[in-house]
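for the recovery benchmark. tokens below, seq after
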């Protein structure tokens, strides 16, 4: 089924999934959003780097009876299966990286609509009596030691104060009071952070809208990073290319900014210039929330403050959330990573890398498997050039595994087979020490190794599990006869 033009928002996405076996389940049993919801979904379909036991490639789950929020429901795990991402983007799961690469190169810019926006069916202003983010937003906690209720799937949309160019990015935000959010902006790494820093230099607040519960194409597209999408590149244009039609924006009701018109929730506010806050100021647990490497991250003392001006919603809104270390984060971060790596390598070495996989064990960020093609003897060594290009395309990448065309990069057992039969540690490991990587890697710290000078510096490593070109004939996999399976199995898979 080609869903590239049929899905326009979260509700149509869920409608498509409801028509397919095993892709979404729903419950009317009351659930506490404080840790219980995540505790349940861990077993249903979280996967990723979540503590074992957990279920990999399980269904998305809708909780229709949320304690304290009688008119809302919560969905999690929408993108926790690569197969489901393929369904929602109308693409074979193995080709998702290539699809996003194509769409990033052929953007379709968003448009501002004057038509009534579904996201503004209900309007709550900060000055209204009883306005309270804790009551309006059913934001869960993942664990009992989380700093507070987190918005994990909020599409943060803002405009650079100098250039007028807009950007959408996902950041973690914690509800701190009835009208305040903290937002964690990694210094120097993401677009919204650069905008906030510039606004602070000018002594001005930065208007920001946070759209929650949107078209999955928007969620995936928003996770692109430089150099594929440099500062000023509006990632909503990637979603427009996926859907072959522009994303619709609408003017906010309380600030000079736009929001995604079909969102379930929109939080409108301003990033206050020069004000920083501690993430766990209410809970004092010392932790933020579980992060993609699989550990509970430390609470930051350098979060920015968002002063909320209004909240708008659809009627009976659907809150969307993600468990930090889940397979959902892997797909959100990893598939754009695959696109960025494939794009850069194919420009420099056309045709020499046939596919890229951002492996779940690295949270979609730390590890990539590259499927390499060697056609002539002069191709030998280009696979290692490709690995170096991968590190350049995605600086947070830590490990690259190189395999041949006959290896299924999406099957870890096949990748490890290549490592066990086509790899010798003394000649096929290439290390690049002292390179900036990712600050959330707990091993990237001076106390872990004397070779590490600062938090976030790593030894990047290439594992070359490809066969040397001159030995290819000695490494041909056993060839089986192509049998007529239709003789033995019916189209539904049953044995004849």
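predicted aa per position
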């Amino acid at each position: 089924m080609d869903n590239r033009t049929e899905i326009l928002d979260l509700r149509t996405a869920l409608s498509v999934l409801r028509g397919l076996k095993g892709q979404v389940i729903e419950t009317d049993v009351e659930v506490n959003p404080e840790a219980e919801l995540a505790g349940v979904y861990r077993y249903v379909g979280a996967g990723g780097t979540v503590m074992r036991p957990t279920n990999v490639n399980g269904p998305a789950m809708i909780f229709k009876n949320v304690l304290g929020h009688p008119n809302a429901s919560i969905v999690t795990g929408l993108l926790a299966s690569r197969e489901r991402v393929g369904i929602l983007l109308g693409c074979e799961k193995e080709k998702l990286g290539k699809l996003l690469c194509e769409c990033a190169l052929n953007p379709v810019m968003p448009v501002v609509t004057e038509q009534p926006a579904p996201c503004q069916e209900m309007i709550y202003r900060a000055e209204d009596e009883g306005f309270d983010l804790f009551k309006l937003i059913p934001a869960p906690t993942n664990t009992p030691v989380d700093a507070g209720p987190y918005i994990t799937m909020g599409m943060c949309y803002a405009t650079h104060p100098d250039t007028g160019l807009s950007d959408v990015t996902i950041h973690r935000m914690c509800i701190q009071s009835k009208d305040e959010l903290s937002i964690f902006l990694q210094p120097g790494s993401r677009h919204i952070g650069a905008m906030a820093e510039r606004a602070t230099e000018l002594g001005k607040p930065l208007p920001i809208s946070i759209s929650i519960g949107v078209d999955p194409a928007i969620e995936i597209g928003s996770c692109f990073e430089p150099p594929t999408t440099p500062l000023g590149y509006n990632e909503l244009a990637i979603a427009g290319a996926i859907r072959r039609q522009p994303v619709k924006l609408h003017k906010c009701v309380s600030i000079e900014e736009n929001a995604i018109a079909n969102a379930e929730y929109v939080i409108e506010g301003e990033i206050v210039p020069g004000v920083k806050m501690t993430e766990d100021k209410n809970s004092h647990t010392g932790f933020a929330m579980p992060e993609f490497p699989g550990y509970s991250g430390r609470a930051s003392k350098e979060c920015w403050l968002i002063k909320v001006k209004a909240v708008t919603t659809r009627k009976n809104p659907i809150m969307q959330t993600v468990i930090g270390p889940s397979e959902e984060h892997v797909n959100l971060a990893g598939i754009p990573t695959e696109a960025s790596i494939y794009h850069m390598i194919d420009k420099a070495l056309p045709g020499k890398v046939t596919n890229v996989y951002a492996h779940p064990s690295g949270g979609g960020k730390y590890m990539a498997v590259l499927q390499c093609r060697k056609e002539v003897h002069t191709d030998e060594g280009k696979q290692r050039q490709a690995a170096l290009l991968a590190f350049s395309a995605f600086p947070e990448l830590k490990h690259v595994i190189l395999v041949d065309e006959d290896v299924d990069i999406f099957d870890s057992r096949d990748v490890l087979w290549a490592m066990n039969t086509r790899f010798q540690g003394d000649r096929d490991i290439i290390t690049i020490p002292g390179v900036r990587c990712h600050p959330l890697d707990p091993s990237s710290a001076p106390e872990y190794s004397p070779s590490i000078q600062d938090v976030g510096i790593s030894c990047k490593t290439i594992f070359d599990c490809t066969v040397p070109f001159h030995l290819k004939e000695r490494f041909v996999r056993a060839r089986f006869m192509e049998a007529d399976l239709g003789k033995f199995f019916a189209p539904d898979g049953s044995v004849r």
